[in-house]
Amino acid sequence: DTEVTQTPKHLVMGMTNKKSLKCEQHMGHRAMYWYKQKAKKPPELMFVYSYEKLSINESVPSRFSPECPNSSLLNLHLHALQPEDSALYLCASSPLTSRGGGEQFFGPGTRLTVL
Amino acid sequence: ILNVEQSPQSLHVQEGDSTNFTCSFPSSNFYALHWYRWETAKSPEALFVMTLNGDEKKKGRISATLNTKEGYSYLYIKGSQPEDSATYLCAFYGNYGQNFVFGPGTRLSVLP
Lengths: 115, 112
Description:
The structure holds two protein chains of two kinds. Chain A is an all-beta fold. Chain A is built from no helices and eleven strands. By secondary structure, chain B is mostly beta strands. In chain B, a hairpin with a 2-residue loop joins strand 6 and strand 7.
């Protein structure tokens, strides 16, 4: 299995809702990433987990809360989001054993709309 | 704030032409440079991971070089085909893996 899966594909939520995005990979990768991507812009890194521990938090607001329950799963918990948080949220994974971090494999993304 | 730049912003070439574009990045605290191919409505797909100064990598008609001392990488496409049309993103991995920033991309259109 050489793919990264993300659910749901689309999510519409109000500013008072709590929702979660899910990402899964079974390639044995020990690094997992969350990105935010606005239309026609490259992905912006949000969080990196290495060996199930948060290693990078790119100054992301606390209304985004990541969680890595095990080496195959990565969640992004959403609470009290703003309309400007509407974007495509991409998950990626990479092997940590490769020099240079290893190429990242991206999931198809979750298209989030905040009303 | 890390500054990763790519040029040109967009490029139109005829089928069969060879082309190249540039990624510029900070020359200090270098860890790795990644190249990705990004088609509209799809997720980025890895092309190369480059770590050593002077690295040259090749995959089919696409190749890349790396100069970490002056902070640039070139991506070359030989004999462009319409299916090469995509945005090519470089990503700078710096500070011993603590920073990972994508460049803005070069959008390539190959005309049949």
